Amino acid sequence: MSDKQWEIYATYGGLSAGDLGRIMGDRKLNPFTQAELLASALAMPFKETGRAHYHIIVQEKTGYPKQIRDGLGWVERLDLERPLHDGFAALPRYSFALELRFRLARPYLSQDDDAFYIIDNPVRKDKVFKVPFVAPTSWKGSLRSAATRGLLTAFAALLPPEPPTDDAEREQLEAALWVERARRVMLFGNEKQNDADFLNRWLAPRLFPRQSEESEEDWRKRLKKRAKELGERFQAYLIEHGYRTEKIEGRQGRLFFFPTFFDKIDLEIINPHDRARRVGKKPILFECVPTGATGTFRLLYVPYDCPGEVAPDEARLRQQVMADLPLVAEAVRDLLTVYGFGAKTSSGFGAVDPRRVAGEVRVNLLDEGAEGVEGPSEGLVRRLLMGDPLERRLHDEFFVDGLFVMVADEEVRQQPWTGKVKADYRKVKPRVLELLATLPTGPRFLSRPITDLDRLPNLACELVERIGGAA
After folding, report:
1. How far apart are CA 96 and CA 86, in angstroms?
2. For the chain, which terminal residue's Cβ has fewer other Cβ atoms within 10 angstroms, N or C?
3. What's the pTM value of the predicted model, to 2 decimals?
4. Interstrand relation of 284-288 and 96-103 (parallel, antiparallel or unpaired)
């Protein structure tokens, strides 16, 4: 009977200091498996030697960098990061997609759910490809938090300098506040209990003033009761206006998120200091996605419902989308550039360089042949010509406001272009029209390229104007 072991932990069972070198030298093991096996050293006197070997795995080109390259290769081959414009025509009218390739300005930290690892703080990795990533649920939670902060700004703009003393005035004010709050419910689904409690506690002292004869303790007790009542009234508002029903507690939002895979991994050291002695106590090692790593943020908005109506009213649905698009754009900008995503965002981690981005925001607008629809976007044209011999003949002059200019043949000569640009346009335009004709017919799109995150809300407002003008 063969002595060969087929179970990997049995093969390296009874780990000794000499086995660490055997693990590192076994080229049949991928880097992630090597790191998992090194975790066996945690219970041994030579655990620091195991961590030193782990440093090598992270830093060497044949270690984690190769693992990530291979994993991303599989992601690409399996088409798991398919651009959102594929199949976009099948979505309901007024759906919009935001796709953004970004570069980290600060490291990204997160916590993996792997309980057995050589260090205490591994970054979260995809379970199949072992590539560092941000899960869709993480994106949703982070963007919800950014939108909640924006909601407080909207509340502050509606609230008077002093709390209302008249019940009728307070009810009128609450109705305006609930409209803003319900918009976030429509986007993200039911409020999390912690978020709801926070908003109710924030509103209570701004809606119910302290009485002159009331003690501080009595006022706080009353505010606690009022906060609970505010939560109940908001839930009643949601039911009354069709955002939810009494029989079904859950509500799905209109926003859908996708995973983001990163192309790098590194180590970060955080060294807490003793306040009295002002020296480091014990450095803490974190896995991180380092500054300069790239990833793609993708978000999809699908207005699959219209609260309170069986069949969506076209005009009302359009108004909702015109209000939601700038709100989402502002929340995305604030999340990526101001608040950050992941762990330790209060220390500046998880921020994106606002000017090192490339992407597109696109809206399903009108049926084929309808007026007010713009031509192909720059991103679409470049994708259509990718690998085509005419790709190298594309010039910046062919695009205005992110759209391919459709110049009549007899007017090309009048354009303020060089002779080469004019000659290339005469060759490129027919090819673009030929490739566009191969695309599926159906809804047409409005789109804007994204090259600066700080301008994202402005781009959203431009699209809103076009949506309103095409109504």
Report:
1. 13
2. N
3. 0.80
4. unpaired
